[in-house]
């Protein structure tokens, strides 16, 4: 029997165990997936223990996505570029390979809603933290090359653009003035998460009619950003698809099969509503 895990701190509210165990059931795979609470100071021991106990792979969540890297033997090129790992695969020779499926999960989710024929649209990324970086690199890899990054701290947006080797960085104010040129607008900040005094990272006053507005947050499903965008007649994409697809891509690295994402999105949407 194969087994998998997710390690993080905190971990109790993770929806990953339920998601992967449901897929194992649906696909008659004899495997199990468990959450493991790992504090930062225990990370090295936890990795050694998972390996010793024969885990086939695991997911990595906050706060270990960057700090796990020194304990891995090999990194997928995208994970290396992002400097963050959310999926580990234990190879037959016992070595550990790190992947990052967050950014690709976002692109799969986006394309599930908008199709894959809109790669020439101007794309705006709001935010320049870890999540935004991952999405920027994945968008580039999937053929989206008209990328603008805006962030409260514009220097961080400039860093992403310089690492990408293409695209532009704009201040929040400059972006607000030119918002109508973007066909796809992606909210990647943690602004207001777990905070009742939510303020949008930027004004959507000039949002293009019919633009696509996506958020990486999925709890709540309808974020203040998406609500505002919907009022401006945008087509909205919530963050749940990203979560489900990052899991599905990890699942494929582990088991070489792609699970049913549509049913899972429906099921989790019902749970979150
Ligand atoms: P994550 O890994 O989720 O991306 P992060 O790396 O801490 O988290 O990045 C958080 C992002 O949210 C950053 O873009 C941050 O902007 P700064 O780089 O200027 O800090 C953005 N953010 C967080 N709180 C914000 C707020 N109150 N208003 C605007 N942007 C905010």
Automatic annotation (TrEMBL):
<dbReference type="Pfam" id="PF08501">
    <property type="entry name" value="Shikimate_dh_N"/>
</dbReference>
<keyword id="KW-0057">Aromatic amino acid biosynthesis</keyword>
<keyword id="KW-0560">Oxidoreductase</keyword>
<dbReference type="GO" id="GO:0004764">
    <property type="term" value="F:shikimate 3-dehydrogenase (NADP+) activity"/>
</dbReference>
<dbReference type="InterPro" id="IPR011342">
    <property type="entry name" value="Shikimate_DH"/>
</dbReference>
<dbReference type="InterPro" id="IPR006151">
    <property type="entry name" value="Shikm_DH/Glu-tRNA_Rdtase"/>
</dbReference>
<feature type="domain" description="SDH C-terminal">
    <location>
        <begin position="239"/>
        <end position="268"/>
    </location>
</feature>
<feature type="binding site">
    <location>
        <begin position="127"/>
        <end position="131"/>
    </location>
    <ligand>
        <name>NADP(+)</name>
    </ligand>
</feature>
<feature type="binding site">
    <location>
        <position position="102"/>
    </location>
    <ligand>
        <name>shikimate</name>
    </ligand>
</feature>
<dbReference type="Pfam" id="PF18317">
    <property type="entry name" value="SDH_C"/>
</dbReference>
<feature type="domain" description="Shikimate dehydrogenase substrate binding N-terminal">
    <location>
        <begin position="6"/>
        <end position="88"/>
    </location>
</feature>
<dbReference type="Pfam" id="PF01488">
    <property type="entry name" value="Shikimate_DH"/>
</dbReference>
<comment type="function">
    <text>Involved in the biosynthesis of the chorismate, which leads to the biosynthesis of aromatic amino acids. Catalyzes the reversible NADPH linked reduction of 3-dehydroshikimate (DHSA) to yield shikimate (SA).</text>
</comment>
<keyword id="KW-0028">Amino-acid biosynthesis</keyword>
<dbReference type="InterPro" id="IPR046346">
    <property type="entry name" value="Aminoacid_DH-like_N_sf"/>
</dbReference>
<comment type="subunit">
    <text>Homodimer.</text>
</comment>
<protein>
    <recommendedName>
        <fullName>Shikimate dehydrogenase (NADP(+))</fullName>
        <ecNumber>1.1.1.25</ecNumber>
    </recommendedName>
</protein>
<feature type="binding site">
    <location>
        <begin position="151"/>
        <end position="156"/>
    </location>
    <ligand>
        <name>NADP(+)</name>
    </ligand>
</feature>
<feature type="binding site">
    <location>
        <position position="239"/>
    </location>
    <ligand>
        <name>NADP(+)</name>
    </ligand>
</feature>
<dbReference type="InterPro" id="IPR013708">
    <property type="entry name" value="Shikimate_DH-bd_N"/>
</dbReference>
<feature type="binding site">
    <location>
        <position position="216"/>
    </location>
    <ligand>
        <name>NADP(+)</name>
    </ligand>
</feature>
<dbReference type="InterPro" id="IPR041121">
    <property type="entry name" value="SDH_C"/>
</dbReference>
<feature type="binding site">
    <location>
        <position position="246"/>
    </location>
    <ligand>
        <name>shikimate</name>
    </ligand>
</feature>
<feature type="binding site">
    <location>
        <begin position="14"/>
        <end position="16"/>
    </location>
    <ligand>
        <name>shikimate</name>
    </ligand>
</feature>
<dbReference type="InterPro" id="IPR036291">
    <property type="entry name" value="NAD(P)-bd_dom_sf"/>
</dbReference>
<comment type="similarity">
    <text>Belongs to the shikimate dehydrogenase family.</text>
</comment>
<feature type="binding site">
    <location>
        <position position="61"/>
    </location>
    <ligand>
        <name>shikimate</name>
    </ligand>
</feature>
<comment type="pathway">
    <text>Metabolic intermediate biosynthesis; chorismate biosynthesis; chorismate from D-erythrose 4-phosphate and phosphoenolpyruvate: step 4/7.</text>
</comment>
<feature type="binding site">
    <location>
        <position position="86"/>
    </location>
    <ligand>
        <name>shikimate</name>
    </ligand>
</feature>
<feature type="domain" description="Quinate/shikimate 5-dehydrogenase/glutamyl-tRNA reductase">
    <location>
        <begin position="116"/>
        <end position="191"/>
    </location>
</feature>
<feature type="binding site">
    <location>
        <position position="218"/>
    </location>
    <ligand>
        <name>shikimate</name>
    </ligand>
</feature>
<dbReference type="InterPro" id="IPR022893">
    <property type="entry name" value="Shikimate_DH_fam"/>
</dbReference>
<feature type="active site" description="Proton acceptor">
    <location>
        <position position="65"/>
    </location>
</feature>
<keyword id="KW-0521">NADP</keyword>
